[in-house]
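Hi R.,

As promised on Friday, here is the backbone we talked about, encoded as C-alpha cells. Could you run it through your design pipeline when you get a chance and send me back a sequence?
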C-alpha cells in the first residue's frame, strides 16, 4: 500500500527518549480493514486496550454513528496506527529540516496496529451499512514505525491519559507493565513522568491481585474476574475492586517496609481469615455484600489496624488476624458505637436481604464511618476482655 504523506521528525529531551518519525497520511476504512487492536486479557497481559464500548454505537444523540449519519460527521483529529515491521518512505520534496513530503509504503503482509481511533473506525464501518460511500471516507492517519509493543503502550497511555480518560481498571494494568519494563527498557523518563508514588502503588496492587488469583492458598485462587472478562458464576470479585483499595492502604508507613511478596502473603492470609469467619459470603457471593464494593473496601481499609494489633504481639499470622476480626461478630451495646454496629457484624449483617442500609454504601466517607466503627468495636471488645 502506498500513500502520499508528510514525514515529520519529532523528539523530546527525556532520558532514554529518542527521535521519532511520524508519517501523516489519509486512509479509508478499506485501507484500514486489516488493522488490529492489542487488547488486554487474562491470557494477554501485555495488551493495552479494551474492547470498544457498544453504548457509543447506538443511533441516538451522542452516538458516533448518529454523528456521521445525522450531524457534522467530521473527524479532524488523526487516527494513530503503528507498523511493527517493515515500512519505507520515498521522499519527493523537502519542506524543512524535519519535514518532508513523499510516499509511505506499507507492505501488504504488514498488519497495522490501531493505537488510537478504534471507535471512529468502528463507527464508520457500521454507518457504511446505511451509506456505503463511507467505506471511502478519508481519515487523517498518523503512522508510526515502532518495533516494540511497549512503545505503542506508552503512546497509547500518553494520548489517552492526558487528553481523555482511560477506564481506570485498564490504567492499573498498564501501570503494572510500565513498572515491570520502564527502567529495564532504558526509558528512565517513563519512570519519572508516569510512575509517581501513586502510580507505583497502583502497579504493586495489580501484582498482588495476580498473586491472589494464581496462588493455590489464596481464597481468591482462580476466582477473580479480570478486566475485559464477562462475569462467570465462579467469579467472586473484580480485579479492579481489589486493586483500587489495596493501592490505597499501600500508603500506610507501617506497611511500607514489607516486600511485595510478603505483603501479598499477609493480605492473602487476612482474606483467608475473613473467609473462615464468613463462609457463606464466599459460597453464595451474590446474596451478600461482603465481596462487593463496600465489603472489599472496608475490610481492606481495616487491614492496617488488624496488622498493627498482631505486630504488637509479634504474631502476624492468620490465627491472629482471625482472633481480632472475630471480635466484630460480637454484640456490643455501647454508646460509642453507631446503632448498626452494636449488633454482630456477621453474615446477616452483610446479607443483601437483611443487612443494614450502611452495608450498601459506596462513598469513601461512608467507608471511613464503617471502618471507624469496626475499629472502635474491636477496641471496646479488647478492653472488656482485659477487665474480665
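Update: got your reply. Pasting your designed sequence below so it's all in one thread:
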Amino acid at each position: 500500500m502506498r500513500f502520499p504523506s508528510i514525514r515529520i521528525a519529532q523528539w523530546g529531551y527525556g532520558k532514554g527518549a529518542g527521535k521519532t518519525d511520524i508519517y501523516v497520511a489519509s486512509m479509508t476504512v478499506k485501507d484500514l480493514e486489516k488493522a488490529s487492536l492489542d487488547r488486554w486479557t487474562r491470557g494477554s497481559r501485555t495488551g493495552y486496550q479494551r474492547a470498544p464500548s457498544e453504548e457509543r454505537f447506538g443511533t441516538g444523540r451522542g452516538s458516533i454513528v448518529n454523528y456521521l449519519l445525522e450531524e457534522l460527521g467530521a473527524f479532524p483529529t488523526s487516527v494513530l496506527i503503528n507498523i511493527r515491521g517493515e515500512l519505507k518512505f520515498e521522499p519527493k520534496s523537502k519542506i524543512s529540516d524535519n519535514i518532508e513530503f513523499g510516499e509511505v509504503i506499507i507492505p501488504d503482509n504488514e498488519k497495522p496496529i490501531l493505537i488510537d481511533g478504534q471507535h471512529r473506525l468502528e463507527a464508520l464501518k457500521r454507518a457504511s451499512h446505511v451509506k456505503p460511500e463511507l467505506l471511502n471516507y478519508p481519515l487523517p492517519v498518523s503512522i508510526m514505525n515502532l518495533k516494540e509493543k511497549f512503545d505503542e503502550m506508552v503512546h497509547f497511555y500518553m494520548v489517552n491519559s492526558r487528553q481523555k480518560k482511560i477506564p481506570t481498571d485498564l490504567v492499573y494494568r498498564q501501570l503494572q507493565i510500565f513498572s515491570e519494563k520502564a527502567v529495564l527498557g532504558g526509558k528512565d523518563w517513563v519512570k519519572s513522568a508516569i510512575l509517581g508514588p501513586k502510580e507505583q502503588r497502583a502497579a504493586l496492587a495489580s501484582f498482588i491481585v495476580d498473586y491472589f488469583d494464581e496462588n493455590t492458598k489464596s481464597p481468591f485462587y482462580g476466582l477473580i474476574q479480570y478486566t475485559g472478562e464477562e462475569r462467570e458464576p465462579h467469579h467472586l470479585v473484580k480485579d479492579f475492586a481489589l486493586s483500587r483499595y489495596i493501592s490505597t492502604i499501600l500508603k500506610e508507613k507501617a506497611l511500607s517496609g514489607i516486600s511485595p511478596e510478603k505483603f501479598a502473603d499477609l493480605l492473602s492470609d487476612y482474606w483467608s481469615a475473613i473467609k473462615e469467619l464468613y463462609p457463606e459470603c464466599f459460597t453464595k457471593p451474590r446474596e451478600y455484600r461482603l465481596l462487593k464494593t463496600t465489603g472489599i473496601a472496608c475490610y481492606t481499609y481495616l487491614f492496617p489496624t488488624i496488622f498493627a494489633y498482631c505486630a504488637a504481639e509479634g504474631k502476624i499470622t492468620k490465627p491472629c488476624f482471625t482472633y481480632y476480626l472475630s471480635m466484630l461478630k460480637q454484640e456490643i451495646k455501647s454508646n460509642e458505637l453507631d446503632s448498626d454496629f452494636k449488633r454482630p457484624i456477621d453474615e446477616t449483617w452483610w446479607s443483601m436481604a437483611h443487612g443494614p442500609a450502611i452495608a450498601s454504601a459506596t462513598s469513601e466517607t461512608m467507608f471511613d464511618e464503617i471502618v471507624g466503627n469496626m475499629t472502635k468495636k474491636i477496641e471496646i471488645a479488647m478492653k472488656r476482655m482485659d477487665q474480665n
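One thing I noticed while checking it: Residues 123 and 317 are 54 Å apart (CA to CA).

Thanks again,
M.
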